[in-house]
Design a protein that fits this description.
Elements: H1 3-10, H2 15-42, H3 48-59, H4 62-72, H5 76-101, H6 103-123, H7 134-154, H8 184-221, E1 274-279, E2 286-289, H9 290-295, E3 298-306, E4 317-326, H10 327-333, E5 347-352, E6 357-361, H11 362-365, E7 372-377, E8 380-381, E9 391-393, E10 407-413, E11 436-441, E12 451-460, E13 466-473, E14 479-480, E15 482-483, E16 493-501, E17 504-514, E18 537-542
Parallel strand pairs: 1-10
Antiparallel strand pairs: 1-2, 3-4, 4-7, 5-6, 5-10, 7-8, 7-9, 11-12, 12-16, 13-14, 13-17, 15-16, 17-18
Helix pairs in contact: 2-5, 2-7, 2-8, 3-5, 3-6, 5-6, 6-7, 7-8
Bound molecules: the ligand Nc1nc2c(c(=O)[nH]1)N[C@H]1C(S)=C(S)[C@@H](COP(=O)(O)O)O[C@H]1N2 and molybdenum atom.
Pfam families: Oxidored_molyb
InterPro entries: Ig_E-set, OxRdtase_Mopterin-bd_dom, OxRdtase_Mopterin-bd_sf
Keywords: Membrane, Transmembrane, Transmembrane helix
Amino acid sequence: MTDEEKQTRTTPGWVRPALAALSGLLAGFAALAVAELTAAWVRPQAGPVVAVGGAAIDRTPASVKDWAIRNFGTDDKLVLQLGILAVLVLFAIALGVVALRYRRAGAAGVLLFGVVGAAAALSRPDSAGFTDALPSVVGALVAAGLLYLLIGRLRTPATAPVTAPADSGAGPEDGSPPEPGWDRRGFVVAATAVAAASAGTGLLGRSLSGSASRDAVASRADVVLPVPDSRAQPVPKGAGLRIAGISPFMTPNGDFYRVDTALVVPKVDATSWRLRIHGDGVRRPLTLTFDDLLRRELVERDITLTCVSNEVGGPYAGTARWIGVRLADVLAECGVKPPSKGGRADQLVARSVDGMTIGSPVEDLMDGRDALLAVGMNGSPLPFEHGFPVRMVVPGLYGYVSACKWIEDIELTSFDSYDAYWVKRKWARRAPIKTQSRIDTPKPFARPKAGSVMVAGVAWAQHRGIDKVEVRIDDGPWREARLAAEDSRDTWRQWSYDWQAAKGGHTLSVRATDRTGEVQTAERTGTVPDGASGRHSVVVTVD
Ligand SMILES: Nc1nc2c(c(=O)[nH]1)N[C@H]1C(S)=C(S)[C@@H](COP(=O)(O)O)O[C@H]1N2
Ligand SMILES: [Mo]
């Protein structure tokens, strides 16, 4: 056996590239762990994965975002984060392998990643300044150094004195020479140390960033919502039909749809929260604390929230009993007038702690409807996912033009001079909710038995109210459905239709008429730019 053959036997050709790939992965792991720890100290949102993810969300074309929301629903953010991690893993492996040949180039590649992360963090609308670059920069520096060190173990020149690992089976005991080419023991020791240190660092970072949110969690647990000065009427007995498969009239908080751009749910400490109100035509700018809000006159209202990204028949609508301060009262106190009464500003821009901007027509907010700065949802403080400590809720407007969660700033301005987040991304400036109706049961492709089949669902036209719902079987005549009792014109309304179903395949369609007498249009449009229109239908086979 020649020397060459022996060496091939003890270290097959793929081993060092594989270990180089592993080095890349370990360096990447270390980078994330160090970045996480730094971010815990700087600002959790400044971590590279969250920053790159957020930047990606902001730059995603509306159509793709719409598609992602549609296909992954509330999991869209998880999918995005997994995608980012997958890209990181692939690049870490590639950089490790490159570094085996070109050690400096590999390390430089790692630094380049740090630059991308830092740039993403600095570009975030909620960026707190240059310190936001630190997690990515520090993480990348550490990782570049570690990659250089690990790859060094794999590249020890064959001429250097090499001590054979004592615990190696292929040691001198079997008579073979110490293996030239790389420092096996050195690599194992370094790799193990890097892995262990990264795990420890990562855990420390986690627990540190956890403690900041613990203050927010504690502040939420301490909230005692006062009894509202103006209670909502009890939900009328007949508003919730007892039909299997229909959406419950009130949507429990845990089931309420969630649509936002936040990769990490903001955890805001209510005790240090402030809301600033300022801008054009604000004669007395105001800064409110959470306690200030609770001490004001509170109203309780049932309002159905709807997302503009909801497809015809889609799930992004829900009804809750909200408690809050009437925004119109606060605005009036600041000296703001609606445009129709000579006010200077026609747009109110709400800004959240995570940099979202949402613009609503001042006229709508002050026309007598219950536009709220909401603090309570179905009897509890707002869940963090739904905007704790304070969000806006406005009957009749899609969420992206009204329902700012984690709100911290209100600026009065004009539609001409400022475009909010989604408007910059091709969505309409103004977006009142379109009349819609949905068949909740039977489900698409259900196989009900012939005879009496309950067709039922919900219909909404917030702030106008629903006056009629009709159902059509195949190409038959429109037949009036039975309407459940109305809670308010700001809530959806349940409906049902007792269908005498004959065997065979059938298409069920539904349409609603709002209180202005307008019938839900049959014309199909997509969600962009101002909400989907068209009629929901469901195909079933009757057995
Ligand atoms: N801060 C912030 N507020 C936000 C959003 C967001 O992305 N960030 N999304 C808006 C949209 S598009 C909708 S439909 C509603 C959804 O509110 P929900 O998640 O409580 O159902 O919140 C609105 N408020
Ligand atoms: Mo939305």
